[in-house]
Amino acid sequence: MQDEEKPSKSARKRVMHELQTLGERLIGLNPEQLAAVALPESLHDAVEQARRITKHEARRRQLQYIGRLMRAVDPEPIREKLKAWDGVSTEEAARVHRIERWREKLIEDDGAIGALVRAHPGIDAQRLRALVRNAREERNAGRPPRAFRELFRALRDIIADLQPVPDDDGE
Question: Which of 28, 84, 125, 159 has its CA 20 to 30 A from that of 117?
Fold first, then answer.
């Protein structure tokens, strides 16, 4: 019964290696990013010290030490922060997909612009219509998608994290 509760040695080693790898990622962050991650002071100091170490064996030992310190920290918030910086967080991916769906709706349906303007009254509808028209012309002519990308950037600015846009086009 006690064996069921206790993870195997292999499982413990796997977790330790994962924490050490996470610590290695922390070393690669710039100072602003490292400050944004809430780390205990001892772990923060160990990461800073590891940045200054150039000898291979000394660096390896410091990484092991960082891995040991990481055992006392909840790694999930750190992982989420790194995923967000990597651009693969689930929230960011969902936001990008929502923006892409809106871009397709705008190009395919003239009524979608009205729905977007109703959802965000302060946007420049005339500029948006021009971008949509240019993106349609590019697509039909087979030209490079310059306006298509510009439309995405405009939608990204409109669809902020604080103001979620409904997934449907208002119909």
Answer: 84
The pLDDT value recorded for residue 89 is: 60
Residue with tokens 């420049």: 124
Q: What are the per-10-residue average pLDDT scores of the chain (171 residues)?
A: 75 90 88 85 92 92 92 88 73 81 89 85 87 91 88 84 46 42
Please spell the DSSP secondary structure of 34-47, one letter per residue.
HHHS---HHHHHHH
Q: At 31, list the tokens.
A: 């100072």
What pTM, to 2 d.p., does this model score? Answer: 0.49
CB count in 10 Å sphere of residue 1: 4
CA atoms within 13 A on the CB side of 104: 8
Position 2 scores a pLDDT of 54
CA distance linking residue 21 with residue 71, whole number of Å: 12
DSSP characters for 43-85?
HHHHHHHHHH--SHHHHHHHHHHHHHHHTTS-HHHHHHHHHHH
**Residues whose CB falls within 8 Å of the CB of residue 167, separated by 6 or more in sequence, listed in order:** 98, 101
Residues 6+ apart with CB under 8 A from 54: none
> Residue 14: what residue type?
R
